[in-house]
UniProtKB/TrEMBL annotation:
Enzyme category, top tier: transferase
Provenance organism: Psychroserpens burtonensis
Organism lineage string: Bacteria, Pseudomonadati, Bacteroidota, Flavobacteriia, Flavobacteriales
Subunit structure: Homotrimer.
Name by which UniProt lists this protein: UDP-3-O-acylglucosamine N-acyltransferase
Record's signal peptide: none
HAMAP family for the chain: LpxD
Length: 342
């Protein structure tokens, strides 16, 4: 699909400097730009590339003024990085703008589909499912009974959504995600054998949530596992039963959150973090990668380590950790001298 500089400037509310009719059909890095490609310049570190790039169109900040001759057509905007991101979002909307029901697929007679829905081949839509307008469900997706999916949500191939799950509007559920599987609940008997505790709750995902590939979110034992508005989850995250994650919190890959943990709003949690069950983490908390959180955490804390403690203390302690062999040797030498004097 081809776009002219003038069309792109219209989408971005930008100003064309150069040929408004030049066309592009692909995207590129500025240092790898080729004829017919679109790129952007936001970081001054890359300024030199704008004089050599072969890209046909480059998005730049309004403040940018070339110091030498350039061949690329410029589109000047308030924020080149944000504008390029907006353009990528627009491109995805065009790319994924599919409609209709492909065959073979199964849709229960009791399911309700909104306008302009797309359901890919080999998908299963269960009883009493409610799907909103402009929802895109890609092939090989399973939607269990009594699930609701809000407008403009996308479920990519191979996603599995168990019964009773509620997914909001403008969500993205990536391939391999499993939402609503049973929580990890087993009860030992007097013989030491385990019997399964029924998990009869559900999962609620609010609006504008992104769930990365192969992430799993377990249904609650009772009540709901809740992912609040604007949460962004990376790939391969495990969220156990009855967990609640506050709005606009971002969690990186391979993090595991045990049952009934409560995480506040606007938190940033690094990769491979382990969070114990039944604890509360406050708002605006920062957790460094590979930390282990086993206690309640107050608002605005920054944590690192396993078990974790405050980031400032961890940095001070690390100076001593890495010098520990020298410190031990010094202590041993001092003890030998003292013992020799005695």
């Amino acid at each position: 699909m081809n776009f002219t500089a003038q069309q792109i400037a219209g989408i971005l509310e930008g100003e064309v400097v150069g040929n408004p009719e030049v066309e592009v059909s692909k995207l590129s890095k500025i240092e790898e730009g080729t004829e017919g490609s679109l790129t952007f310049l936001a970081n001054p570190k890359y300024n030199s590339y704008i004089y050599s790039t072969k890209a046909s169109i480059t998005i730049v900040n309004k403040t940018f003024e070339p110091e030498n001759d350039i061949s690329t057509t410029l589109i000047k905007v308030d924020d080149a990085y944000q504008s390029f991101s907006k353009l990528l979002e627009y491109y995805n909307q065009v790319k994924f703008n599919k409609q209709g029901v492909e065959q073979p697929s199964f849709i229960s007679e009791s399911a309700k589909l909104g306008r302009d829905v797309y359901i890919g081949a080999f998908s299963y839509i269960g009883d009493q499912v409610v799907i909103g307008d402009n929802v895109k469900i890609f092939p090989n997706t399973y939607i269990g009974d009594n699930v609701t999916i809000g407008d403009h949500t996308i479920l990519f191939s191979g996603a599995k959504v168990y019964s009773e799950t509620m997914i909001g509007k403008h969500c993205v559920i990536n391939s391999g995600v499993i939402i609503g599987a049973d929580g990890f609940g087993f009860v030992p008997d007097k013989n030491g054998e385990y019997s399964k505790m029924p998990q009869i709750g559900n999962v609620i995902i609010e609006d504008h949530v992104d769930v990365g590939a192969a992430t799993t979110i377990d249904r609650a034992t009772l009540g709901s596992t809740v992912i609040r508005r604007g949460v962004k989850l990376d790939n391969q995250i495990q969220i156990a039963h009855n967990v609640e994650i506050g709005k606009n919190t971002v969690i990186a890959a391979q993090t595991g959150i045990a049952g009934s943990a409560k995480i506040g709003e606007n938190c940033l949690i690094g990769g491979q973090v382990g969070i114990a069950g039944h604890i509360t983490i406050g708002n605006n908390v920062r957790v460094q990668a590979q930390s282990g959180i086993g206690r309640h955490v107050k608002d605005n804390e920054i944590l690192q380590g396993s078990p974790s403690f405050t980031f400032g203390d961890w940095n001070k302690s690390y100076v001593h950790f890495k010098n520990l062999p020298k410190i031990v040797k010094s202590i041993n030498d001092l003890e030998k001298k003292l013992n020799g004097n005695n």
